[in-house]
Every structure is written in C-alpha cells, then in structure tokens.
Write a structure and sequence with these properties.
With 74 residues, the chain is α/β, with parallel strands linked by helices. Helices cover 43% and strands 20% of the residues. The protein is built from three helices and three strands; from the N terminus they run βαβαβα. The chain has a three-stranded parallel beta sheet, with helices on one face. Helix 1 links the parallel strand 1 and strand 2. The radius of gyration is 13 Å and the shape is globular.
C-alpha cells in the first residue's frame, strides 16, 4: 500500500508528521511526501531519505489563494 502526504512546508512534515510516517512504515506502507522547495541537499530531504521516504518536489504555492492553480497542480 502507498500513502501520499502533501505539505506546503517540508520542514513541517518532519516536525509534525514524523510519528505518522514511522507508524505507516511499521505497517509496511510506502510513504511519499510531496512539497515545494524540496532539494536533495536540505536537511529535511536528507532526513526523509534516511527514513526511506520517497519525496517529490511540487509547484505548490504556500500562500496562494487561486483554486484554479491548485486544480492545475493536481
């Protein structure tokens, strides 16, 4: 089974969803994280990679209010 976690801030995934990620992995669920500004050299991505999480950089606006842009993103 696979689980996709979408966040508008990559550091918040580590700070607030780390227990969720670990629990899902204990249940043999593959975890994917999609967030903006993810790059391989950031501490957040290094932490996610060390946990075996697959991450994807997406063009999500952290402060956007346009639902059509969000629809295009999806």
């Amino acid at each position: 089974m696979k689980f996709l976690l979408i966040s508008n801030n990559p550091s918040m995934v580590i700070n607030f969803r780390l227990d969720l990620i670990k629990d899902l992995q204990k249940r043999n669920i593959q975890v994917f994280v999609a967030a903006p500004t993810l790059s391989l050299d950031t501490p957040d991505c290094k932490k996610l990679k060390s946990l075996g999480v697959v991450f994807h950089n997406i063009a999500l606006s952290r402060s956007g209010l346009n639902p059509f842009k969000d629809l295009v993103l999806l």
